[in-house]
Amino acid sequence: PANADLVIVGAGLFGLTVAQQAAEHAGVRVLIIDVRDHIGGNAYSYFDKETGIEIHKYGAHLFHTSNRRVWEYVNRFTEFTDYVHRVYATHDGEVYPLPINLGTINQFFRAHYTPAEARALVERQAGEHAHGIARNLDEQGKKLIGQPLYEAFIKNYTAKQWQTDPAELPASIIRRLPVRFNYDNRYFKDTWEGLPKNGYTAWFERMIADPRIEVKLGVDFFDESQPLNRRTLAEAGVPVVYTGPIDRYFDYELGELKWRTVDFKERRYDEDDHFGCPVMNYSDADVPYTRAIEFKNFNPERAESYAPGKTVVWEEYSRFARRGDEPYYPINTDEDKSIYDQYRTKAQLEPNTVFGGRLGTYQYYDMHQVIDTALTAYVEEVAPLLNRW
Ligand code: FAD
Ligand code: NA
């Protein structure tokens, strides 16, 4: 059915990276199919017609890495801006810098603590809760940073993320809560960060510019009414890289893996700048969304190209995903882990098929991690399946 030596299910970063490597190193013809109407998977973005603003359709995506192999690889396809990620939070009528740092602490306590004084204060407040094992997230949070900071910046935000009272969430969700005892509020600690200069989609198009790579959109691997489906490809003996949900591949026969999803509510304001920053978290319970993204502030270097007096903001509402929702964050309970292990064992026995990406391995990956795993999977698992001539 396919005039291809390799079929890739999913045009996300895992699939695009494997396709690019297969064309470049093995010289084979690669066909990528995706059920969506665009490439890029969850990292896809588009330019809004009315305002010229780049909108990340599946939530804000910031590229950052300390992995030299990945940084050199991605720079073959796009330049990056010098964007540095910073986040602010609204709490009790004031705006604070995040992650919690000396600026947050001094504003919150109306103080001028030195780094050592702030450290002693937080240690003392945490110490009041240090006794015994934290039985839930609420106790864990107080134990890590003390009650005042935990309740101001972590408690209600986490409750909104999980739609669950933190006293009913497992302590294991937060193993540590980093507090910085200086004024550094640069969000990522990685060596390199930035945003693709001409947008995410221009980057991804460069990855598949090779004429041996073809993409077919709107094609579902499991839809037997179209020719490029699971059965016909297996019969033709074409190697497949599958980056869709692993439980779906096996018809959920061992159970469903659980995810959280996010609903986005778009707001348009007749203002040049609504927040003065790209990300505003809402730490309190009275605002129902966790955070809001003002996309134009990710790309201040494009100021000239924006429609004046307009901005676009997306509010994020977090909830548990049902089948048919976009799966975003794996929940990873012990039950999920055990189900996934059984699917993975089955996947390893599946002939001529490589499972990869965040859905194929039930893992949260950042973009740089998924590219790294794809570069490795190409060498270790995909190349051995390709006939070279
Ligand atoms: P995906 O991008 O999900 O691609 C899988 C593709 O497979 C999809 O396009 C899907 O349509 C297709 N597919 C599935 N089933 C089928 C089928 N049956 N037939 C055909 N096609 C199918 N990473 C960062 O580095 N920085 C960030 O700031 C960041 N923010 C994020 C915010 C959110 C809300 C989320 C959810 C993720 C974020 N990420 C971020 C992670 C990033 O999105 C992933 O690392 C990356 O998208 C994973 O690529 P992938 O190829 O594994 O999966
Ligand atoms: Na191409």
CATH superfamily of the domain at 6-39 and 208-256 and 330-385: NAD(P)-binding Rossmann-like Domain
What's the architecture of the domain at 6-39 and 208-256 and 330-385 in CATH terms?
3-Layer(aba) Sandwich
Write the H/E string, N to C.
Answer: EHEEEEHEEHHHHEHEHEHEEEEEHEHH
Give the strand tally.
Answer: 16
Euclidean distance between termini CA atoms: 21 Å
Binned strand content? 15-25%
Query: Structural class, from helix and strand content?
Result: alpha/beta
Uncertain spans: none
Q: Give the bound compounds.
A: flavin-adenine dinucleotide, sodium ion
CATH class categorisation of the domain at 6-39 and 208-256 and 330-385: Alpha Beta
Notes on the protein architecture:
It contains 12 helices and 16 strands. The protein is an alpha/beta fold and 389 residues long. Among the domains are: 6-39 and 208-256 and 330-385, Rossmann fold, CATH 3.40.50; 101-173, no CATH class. The strands form 4 sheets. It has a 7-stranded mixed β-sheet. A 5-stranded parallel β-sheet has the order 9-2-1-10-16, with helices on one face. A hairpin with a 6-residue loop joins β3 (45-47) and β4 (54-56). The protein is globular. The two termini are 21 Å apart. The mean pLDDT is 96. It binds flavin-adenine dinucleotide and sodium ion. Keywords: FAD, Flavoprotein, Isomerase. This is UDP-galactopyranose mutase. Belongs to the UDP-galactopyranose/dTDP-fucopyranose mutase family.
